[in-house]
Amino acid sequence: GDGCGHTLLTPPRGTLSSKNYPGTYPNHTAPPRQLRAPPGTSLLLAFGDVPPQPSESCAHSSLLLADPQAPPPYGPFCPPPVPTTPLLVTNSSAVTVLPPRTSHRSGRGLLLSYATSQHPAGVQGAFRRERALTPPLATCFSVYCPAGCKDIDGDIWGNPSQGYRDTSVLCKPPLHAGVIADELGGQVTLAREKGITLYESAFANGLHSKRGSLSEKRLIFHKACHLPLPACGDVLEVAAFNASSPPLEVDALGQDRAWVAERAAPPTTGHSWAAEPGSDSAWLELDLGARRNVTGIITKGSSEQYDYYVTSYRVSSSRDGKNWRPYRGSSGQEDKVFEGNADSYGEVSNAFIPPFVARYIR
């Protein structure tokens, strides 16, 4: 798709959805799309949703289907009524979909399924599958998120523990939650449940979510969907800490202030571990006591009093404490640089996709 939605266009059948569907689609961002079938066949179309129109007449902001070989166009089609027949049978093997390009306050956007006269059952089957994207509460549904959704326009509200407002851009929440990696994309299965009063913001996997108010529904990634997801489960206990040289400081009373490795254990109050100033190869090492499956990391600064925090870092792992392997993520080409904290008091989460097995982590 062109907006990290779930559009799928193939010669025999497919679906077409507007950006962010089933959430609100952006204003003035609906480009024409052409549906093509093999020569000599006809296109059959079924409508799931039609974009809303601000004008009562629907003449200037409606959905049109243009046959490039045989004008005039089909339509206009306006909500709430969609075409009166369950299927719109065209006489052409090519149809251009012209969505409205007007302003609106909210709207679910366009959902259209199609098939050819050679495969007439395909449009009904595709339509039923796409309708599963708007399920009843507390049910699961699946969407495909392509790679590169991180930088598309649109906001997300919520966090991995509370869930996300269902008006969030559809493929950004799974990136924020660490379910998929942006460089790979992938199939995402999630649940839609009743909304909550307040969605707290969070910074995770290079994305900021927003703090927002009550919504009717929320999107969550958890065991209710019976998913084999690499979700963050129990926090791993650390048997021992080790680190490169810490800084030596003397407080106002003339006493040494130790920024030693053990101070990195959460929830430590006051000063934490810190690297020696000027060090270009500082490291903090965690011994998990045994080999564990590691799916992510959460970092936090020292405190507002000292205002120390790490803005970026790399991760290495070892099973024996001698042979170390740098973490390179899903690309496998270069050591992955994780985006860390921007202040000394907030928590930042980063997922390991894929996860790894190790006893020692640096």
UniProtKB/TrEMBL annotation:
Q: Which SUPFAM superfamilies match?
A: Galactose-binding domain-like, LCCL domain, Spermadhesin, CUB domain
CDD domains linked: CUB (cd00041), FA58C (cd00057)
Record's subcellular location: Membrane
Q: Transmembrane helix as a keyword?
A: yes
Q: Where is the F5/8 type C domain?
A: 225-362
Q: Show the GO cellular component annotation of the record.
A: plasma membrane
Membrane topology of the entry: Single-pass type I membrane protein
Which UniProt key words apply to this protein? Disulfide bond, Membrane, Phosphoprotein, Transmembrane, Transmembrane helix
Q: Tell me the segments the record calls region Disordered.
A: 1-35
Organism of origin is: Phaetusa simplex
Q: Which residues form the CUB domain?
A: 4-117
Protein name as catalogued: DCBD1 protein
